[in-house]
Amino acid sequence: MSERTIYLDNAAATRLDECVLEAMRPYFFDTYAVATSQFGYSLGIDARDALEDARTRIAAGLGAAPEELVFTSGDTEASNMALKGVAMALGAKKGRHIITSAIEDFPVLHSARALERQGFDVTLLPVDGDGRIDLDALRGALRRDTILVSVQAANQEIGTLQDIATIGAICREHDVLFHTDATHSFPRVPLDARRVPVDLVTLSPHLIHGPRGIGALYVREGTPLTKWMDGGFQENNLRAGVENIPGAVGFARAVELVTPEETARLQEMRDRLIEVLLAVPDARLNGHPTFRLPHNANVSFRYVEGESILLHLDMRGYAVSTGSACFSRSLEASHVILGIGGDHERAHGSVRVTFGRFNAESDVDAVASALSDVITRLRAISPLGKE
Question: Which of 88, 102, 326, 384 is catalytic?
Fold first, then answer.
């Protein structure tokens, strides 16, 4: 067992940046009161000011107004709020048809299925071999009773980026609300709500070296959305519950620490790793070769099981993934790989490597060498050997 683990699963979770922790620290020990109005006591007013300052800074990164940002407990709650809130607001007024894609992350996919069990009609758009939806198929799926389209900005597993601007324009043309889950892309992949016609956006800092337990939903002004969580009247009465002020402050700092220079460095590491891994015999890239997240490399290797690769890499001190974090407790084939036309062998032979701020350039060559050696050794003893 290696003494030091090289962590390469930054699409599942990231190490908290010390600068983020320092920004949060005062709101654990000094200004720890519940946010109160201007007529409250000083600690509560200071907490309120910190919360609203964080909201303003995060909204600025999205080109949004501060009042359009609703803090949540994370991206899962934000996506649930988007789909179920729109369904509650428009289901009886306009229609009960929702469109999403077949490779969405589980918060969207399972929210859509939950609404389906309540009588909503859900259309799952297919994707091409690179994971991008067919825009003509989207146009064909829109109906008079369609109330919402939800298509992710970037796929959580294979890293494919969708054409959010065009999807939003199509939805706007048909007077249909558009939600996108930008958990894996914001703010590394710029999204300007002033220019892109998107009505709801799911955000989270836990993949950009920010805190867990905090997220946000962008809700464009005028978007019909019904509160679905009972309780207090926080967040403009759209989300009940005491605000996570340290989390909001950390969220804002995490967004500000992401720079174009850092993103370019991660992309160079991604490209170099993909180039080396595709030189391995019977290797195949999963996801779009260019329209993909800057830090994501996902490759399938024939004649080996991804679980075996992960185990051997772990013993050598490398932490990678076979797909999205949600699959770690399941032996089912990835719905994403199956969705892009892959079979069970391709799904189970996939390895996802995702880089983060604390990865060094030397990690690329190290994991590439380890992966190549592990695959060679496993294939030598594999019952799946070439026919």
Answer: 326
